[in-house]
Amino acid sequence: MCGIVGGIAERNVVPVLLEGLRRLEYRGYDSSGITVLDENQNLKRIRAIGKIKNLQEKIEQTDELLTGRLAIAHTRWATHGKPSENNAHPHISCDRVAVVHNGIIENYQELKTQQQEQGYLFESETDTEVIAHAIHSHLTANNDVLAAVQLAILEFEGAYAIGVTCKDDPNTLVAARKGSPLVIGIGIGEHFIASDVSALLPVTQQFIFLEDGDIARITREEVNIF
């Protein structure tokens, strides 16, 4: 079923997200990954096949400590494309936009063809990568990640729950849902997203359940739902 966890805080959110992924293991998965916006506003991504412990080991083996106050993470169950690191989430467009996604974009092949004609390169076999490129395409026009997501989702047919980060905006996490569950966990000076409340119980007991068609702009201080 896949699982999403994301967060924005004044502290390092990586341990919170990894624990959240462990709590979503019951949903089933074949790979996992995390993307962190570091202190230099670079998107750092680590992905692994198999259990969460494999992802943890890869993180521990990196030359630089993986830390950040804005991050998204995911456990994937293969639908489009075999289990592989390239197919694991998060997916990144042009080193600028990172996306995690649950659900199926039914018109992804049509969108992929259009995006390839626009010059976008694909590194995976997934339908999710078209989401990242669509958001990036709109972002280049208006430089507003919320507006870019609002425009991009108009192109998608199917079901989705997504978490989006952008290196140009280190203070914003964007979430949207249609047909796939997504919840926002409310904290003090920090907020989180997840597929299920169980992922966030160690950090909060207060939740907002997004409804179909909702898009949320999430910062450390507030949550705005459109």
Q: Can you put this structure into words, describing what you see?
A:
It is built from five helices and 13 strands. The model has no long low-confidence stretch (mean pLDDT 93). Strand 5 (91-93) and strand 6 form a beta hairpin. The strands form two sheets. Strands 3-2-4-1-10-9-11 form a seven-stranded antiparallel beta sheet, covered by helices on one side. Strands 5-6-7-8-12-13 form a six-stranded antiparallel beta sheet. Helix content is 23%, strand content 34%. The protein has 226 residues and is an alpha+beta fold. The longest helix has 15 residues, at 128-142. Helix 3 (108-117) packs across helix 4 (128-142) and helix 4 (128-142) packs across helix 5. The radius of gyration is 16 Å and the shape is globular.
Distance between the termini: 26 Å
Helix count equals: 5
Mean pLDDT: 93
Helix-strand category: alpha+beta
Measured as a percent range, the helix fraction is 10-25%
- By DSSP, the count of extended strands is 13
Query: Quick one: biggest sheet?
Result: 7 strands, antiparallel
Radius of gyration: 16 Å
Low-confidence stretches: none
Strand order of the largest sheet: 3-2-4-1-10-9-11
Secondary-structure element pattern, one letter each:
EHEEHEEEHHHEEEEEEE
Shape: globular
Beta fraction: 25-35%
Which structural traits does this protein have?
single chain, 226 residues, alpha+beta, seven-stranded antiparallel β-sheet, six-stranded antiparallel β-sheet, 13 strands, 23% helix
